[in-house]
Amino acid sequence: MSEATDTADVIIIGGGVAGLSTAMQLGRRGARVIVLDRSQLGSGSTGRAAGLLGQLRGTPEETRMLIDGVEIVQELETQTGVEIFVQTGSLRVAQTPARAREISDQVAMGKAIGFAIDHLSIDQVAEMLPYMKTDDLVEACYCPTDGYLQPAELVGAYVKVGRQCGVTYQTATPVQAVLTSGEKVRGIETSAGQYHAPVVVN
Length: 202
Fold this sequence. Notes:
The protein has helices at residues 17-28, 45-48, 60-80, 97-112, 122-128, 151-164, and strands at 10-13, 33-36, 52-53, 85-87, 90-94, 118-119, 139-143, 147-149, 168-170, 175-181, 184-190, 193-196, 199-201. The protein is an alpha/beta fold.
């Protein structure tokens, strides 16, 4: 098998949104990056995802990370002129006291970090969703800035901006092995040959 001449600072295995986002961010910081995918970019779980994006999580740190993620996507929309994130808002409801406490705690945490979220009365839920059964609900909250991502558009935007930053994408290239020297990674073996880099992200 011939040895590929491609070299990089970082090799990323997998061209889903996680790999493509990582590649774009590294490319923006001046790293030479190669993304390898065994099929086509975004053809795995990314292409089958509903893309639902609820920012509220169990800790302030996790919530802030997702808030930052929405801002990154909105920046991508501006750069590429493509609608990626559709803001629909999201509703969380509780039928049990335990779930109601969880929602109440999350709303308090969200408000403490300046996140746009608030309680809704059950009457407000019924007005918002007239076809939904609401007589068994005990708590609800609404986040107006949640929504969903369009996977194909997100993939396209990551690739477009990544290419502008010098990222290289190699599709139909299954990775067969990670190449090491002692305890250090030195690259990967693929069906098309070897690619060399001191960092491999799987």
